[in-house]
Structure prediction request, 334 residues.
Amino acid sequence: MIAPAVVRLVELRRSTAGHLHPAGKKRHHPSMRIRVLLVALLLTATVWAGIVEDVRGALNDNSFVAAQMFLKTYRAKNGVTPEYIEAYSWQARAALSNQDYDQAEKFAKETEALVADQLKTRKLDEETHLPLALGAALEVESQVLVARKRQPQAVALLKTALQKYGSTSIEERLQKNLNLIALDGKPAPALKFDEFLGAKPPAQLRGSPVLLFFWAHWCGDCKAEAPIITQLRSEYASKGLTVVGPTRLYGYTAQVEHADAKNELAYIDAVRKRFYGGLLDMSVPISKHNFDVYGASTTPTLVLLDREGKVAMYHPGALSYDDLKAQIEKVVAR
Prediction:
């Protein structure tokens, strides 16, 4: 987070930047003094604030200059650290959001190179910053390729990355991005039902439309999505719509930082009964494998299958009632 003094100077600068003298001329000198003070404070803000938060804050204001100033100052003081690299990676995401594909690709590849240098002396998952940075870089690179109508190259990039990093924490994220590009119209990957809560799992994911609702016990957006899914299931039950709600163990609960599988499973069941009352008869397979193959690094992730068991919609994130209904309507009408 940026220091309050910096924020105040930014606000003051904005308020005076276009102020006019009675004669109609802009005031230049006060603005210049404020600019000098702002630069000085920016150069010292990272003494107490996190570099990731600083860079993200600057980019949220669409100020790449301020973001790069934070990065330059941090690097001069601390060198290239995993935290620095994660902060650096946010430039690629911001450039992609601005549809500046050349810059997005440049920042993404530079991030990937910085991560590769770190991996010469450490493992990817020794801490959290490097996997976040690398996952973002590969995601941006693939999305830039798609934006440039080079989908085969994007698929190849992600498949290569999965082969290299498939046993790390970024596997789900890589698979998600691959699925966004290549899963539509393909047969749905099989789910594992070795352990489950709720109703008995369906024998197969075909014969009737199926909505896969990937959720997590800690996920607020999942709880908000549940009433929408409950309502739509009720409306389309007569047309065969089935809902399956895969989830997984995360190794903790709201009360226990390091929970064993038995206690976490009991906690999941308690969350299910409290927040998913309209879906208690929904089959809930418990398996990290399901999240891996569907790339459900975002929760909720919604996947709609047609009667042939093929993927008709793959959507990381929540959907409104109207948007999800429109997708279901297409599938049940076939």
Summary: Residues 1-37, 43-48 have pLDDT under 50 and may be disordered. Residues 196-332 form a domain with the Glutaredoxin fold (CATH 3.40.30.10). The longest strand covers residues 311-316.
